[in-house]
Design a protein that fits this description.
By secondary structure, the chain is α+β, with helices and mostly antiparallel strands. The protein has one domain (2-154): Alpha-Beta Plaits (2-Layer Sandwich). The chain is built from six helices and eight strands; from the N terminus they run H-E-H-H-E-E-H-E-E-E-H-H-E-E. The chain has helices at 2-14, 29-36, 38-56, 79-90, 122-135, 138-149; strands at 19-25, 61-64, 69-75, 96-100, 103-107, 110-115, 160-164, 177-181. The chain has a four-stranded antiparallel sheet with strand order 2-3-1-6, with helices on both faces. It has a two-stranded antiparallel ribbon with strand order 4-5. Helix 2 runs antiparallel to helix 3 (38-56) and helix 3 (38-56) packs across helix 4 (79-90). The longest helix is centred in the first third of the chain and has 19 residues, at 38-56. The radius of gyration is 24 Å and the shape is elongated. Mean pLDDT is 78; it is low at 152-165 and 174-191.
């Protein structure tokens, strides 16, 4: 990355263009592999890499630079444009979604972006971003907030649950059974006479 990136940086400086460095962390990757196995984890990596390669286009560079770290170099793109590109490619909040058999997997990567300054090296910027990523208290908070806010996007369809309604006192009698969706597991009561 540094060999190809330093050449991009020299060319960007020569053309008076910015070079942005985007660092993503998929912190759920080890847990995903532990729970679903290496095949699903490899599918997640391939999905993430494909999206980042499309974001980088032919001018940039996208690669996996650590067990859970992915990096994109975008020559000619400033910080704000890079952030807009991330949200265009990965949504807002960012997420990677795919099916793994009967399960829908949703990973919420954390990211950080910086445009390389006039006196900085690519290695300094990259190492600084990785350090900031590890120290960020928002990494896990942001992921958890998304998962709490958007539960329907990372859970399978709920089964139809049947529950018995109790009738209020009065002349009108409600129907004895009504189909409702319930997020909590419910037992299905047996009608009288069928026990």
């Amino acid at each position: 990355m540094f060999k190809g990136g330093e050449e991009m940086l020299r060319q960007s400086r020569r053309d008076n263009q910015p070079l942005s460095v985007l660092v993503f962390e998929l912190s759920d990757l080890p847990e995903l592999e532990r729970v679903f196995g290496s095949r699903v984890a490899k599918k997640a990596v391939a999905k993430m890499t494909a999206k980042l390669e499309r974001m980088a286009t032919r001018k940039g560079l996208a690669l996996r630079t650590g067990p859970t770290i992915f990096t994109v170099l975008l020559p000619g793109v400033g910080r704000d444009s890079a952030r807009a590109g991330i949200h265009a490619m990965l949504g807002q909040p960012c997420r990677i979604e795919f099916d793994a058999g009967d399960d829908e997997i949703v990973l919420v990567p954390e990211f950080i972006v910086q445009t390389v300054g006039d006196t900085e090296s690519l290695q300094e910027v990259y190492e600084g971003l990785c350090s900031d990523m590890k120290q960020s208290p928002l990494t896990e908070q942001g992921r958890q907030k998304y998962l709490e806010r958007e539960p329907e996007s990372h859970s399978g369809p709920m089964e139809l649950q049947v529950t018995k309604l109790t009738a209020p006192p009065g002349p009108r009698q409600p129907k004895p059974f009504q189909a409702v969706y319930s997020p909590m597991p419910a037992t299905i009561p047996m009608p009288m006479g069928y026990r």
